[in-house]
## 1
Amino acid sequence: MIVVDALEEPGLKHAFYTRRGGVSSGIYRSLNCGLGSGDQADAVRANRARTMAALDLPADALHTCLQHHSADVITIEAGTDPEDRKKGDALVTSVKGLALGVSTADCAPVLFADTNDNVVGAAHAGWRGALGGVLEATVDAMIDLGARADNIRAAVGPCIGVESYEVGPEFPGPFIERDRSAAQFFEAAQTEGKFLFNLSGYVVERLMALGLGDVVRLDCDTCKDEVTFFSYRRSRHRNEPDYGRSISVIALSE
């Protein structure tokens, strides 16, 4: 598990989990936490329970959603059934003892915390979600629960690095149409006509525009670092039938 100083303080628990320390085997080795993967369900649930145990939380404290690359945010309240997973790509709560988790395998996990007002959030930000406003929607949902933007700290976790993220010639258009300054997150690839996309840089830029108290990011490349991370793109390059998912979690302490 990876933690960041910006979210290390009393009253808060968090972790960006790697692929290490679980019970899954084969292409899912070993801490695969993706309920949507083809891994054995018992193994995935055991892995998810391990992530909670590492934070001194019960297995049923973990709330996740059915991610579909949207800007949909789910508010988790006291008594919400963790087995009732709704479609969305971000979660927020002001309830202590409930953990919010998002799964990734190249997309950017983003954890949010306002410990002054006791509100936390977690977002799954792939290129579609980031472009579509999932980060802004998460902050808005936290504000609805009583948070203040300038009290919120955000940490961008492990995701695919720019050197690994080659995209087609049509890809930059929607980003630049929204904001011409987004051109800075694209550079020419070695393949003629293609580009390399800086996903984490783009996510940080969108977060900085929200006037948050602090924004930090981890310098990782999930596609390159096979020992530490799962990667959708790496699995596609190898024509593997599926891929594992890592989980990133945040919770207010009781």
## 2
Amino acid sequence: MDFPFLLRTLPKLWSPLQVTIAVSLVSLGLGFALGISLGLLRVAIADWLPVRIAIDAYVWLVRGTPIIVQIYAAFFLLPKIGIQLPLFWVGVVALTFNSVGYQIEIVRAAVESISTGQREAARAMGMSAGMTLCSILLPQAVQRMIPPLTNELSNLVKASSVLSAIALFELHKASNAIAASTYKYVEVLVLQALLYFVVIQSLSWVARYLETRVFAFDGELAIEREQVAMVRA
């Protein structure tokens, strides 16, 4: 193992690593905005068959096709409909499309996991279905979403390596270029794996902190506060 080579190569991978992190975080953020909207819609109007079928069909499409097919679809189909984007944003579109399909199910499962007793208590207080969903169920569901969302972000970081297929110069693409020019395949592979590991573990630690310290939430306390607020009103 050529350790001096690893030390010389590490700075060259810093910019591609930033691209990997950026495309993953932007995709997760956009995916969450769309996923939470569609997930809540899926819960709120579960009895409206056309919308439910449309959302479920989207989820099935995402889960039933490989990420590489979705990336190529974004790369080749977007120009066909007149949308010209830089490679970074083509990658964001592809990863977001993929992530939304999983985040819809994360949101739906988290909301539906809240006990029905809390829904009944909120409705007994006179709260509407929308208020119950947004004020009682969603805040509790957010805490339950954090572990699967962390896993989804980890998957996006790893899936971003497939963007090398459309020549986005992210960590995997840059590593391959260095390995091909230096013939240090083992060293570059080890360094690449180490960087992915550090990024994913760091994200896991941040998510664990958020879950235990920031988003800790007591559902029964929330209902009591709503009751107090309604009495005072």
## 3
Amino acid sequence: MKTKYLLFGVAILAFVMVVFLVLGDSDSQKRYVEQVEKDRKNREEIFKNSPESPIAKKDSFAGLKYFPVNPDFRLKAKFEKIKGNPRYALQMTQSDAEQYVKFGYARFSYQNKNYQVLLLHKPGDKYLFFPFTDASNGKTTYEAGRYINNVPFPKTEEIILDFNYATNPYCVYNAEYTCPIPPKENRLAFAIEAGEKKYK
């Protein structure tokens, strides 16, 4: 009889722990979504009012469009540092190539397929730079690709590629800007319906 009650108690405890983990994870995702939405509002405020905005005529600014925040597009990747910090001449849309550093590779799996992308760093920047193209370009997103400008420097062999923070290059909003062209290493075969949409 004692064994029966003991097993019952263990089962109840296990159930409570599972519920706690699920609810905890749900709460964490809610906070994550709220933070991304807050960052998007801050970015729109900058575009609307800041003198550093790429929008030349702010009175005609129509606002920015995004996909709903999707935590599934916050991908964990294995990071491999490139030794020697080799220079990389990144082609621009309207000017000579700009010098970056080939910082490392990020490897991840999506829908049972493996991918490897190149992460760049411009000396002096606080974050790594990830310009990319994907299968949504020309349909729901900008034709020439998008960027993730805020990839944190990895402290371990794991790195996060958060496509909810994918944004358009400034030349989308103003033809006077010259923008980096995503390298061929970062051409992704699947559609990334996360981050910023086409600007109209």
